[in-house]
Amino acid sequence: QNETVDLAGNVQIIYQNQHLSCQRAKINLRSKSMDASGNVIFITPKARISGARVILEYESGTGLIYDGYVQSGSVIFEGTQILKLSETEYVADNAKYTTCTTCPEAWNFSGEKIRAELGGYAYIKNSTMRFGGIPMFWFPYIAVPLKTDRQSGLLTPSIGQRGEGGLTYAQGYFWAISRSTDATFNFTNYEF
Q: How much is the pTM?
């Protein structure tokens, strides 16, 4: 009568090209929304989403993920609360981002807030970069790519010392000419 469905146990929900599994779900057919809890796994063509609780408007693809993560390829970001704005856009609070799939992860960026667009960039506010769980660098604001395609850009610079006592500074540039062709240029300054 109120157009709601309550499911419990090994819940499996398939809607168009999306699949959700959980322990409990309440579906409101009138508002086209669902509230899923208990080991929630939500799989879309663009991402795998998991959380303790997921509230989702399944027709618009928007929702809220509690204590969960979003994985797209090797890109993983997690947060205490993740707002799903569209198929590819997310905003995560008390968040962490990495592309390192080792356990435990070798590095990550954590921050107060991450605004991420799959296939685009993640913008991280008040970010700390950690290596092996140890904080190394703090950034007030940083943008990191969430792209799997190769793209042109500057490489990590290197600073060294020559045998005669002078310093060297090298800056590399990677040029992605096409999918199968690239070039790397290295500009080095030698100090005498």
A: 0.74
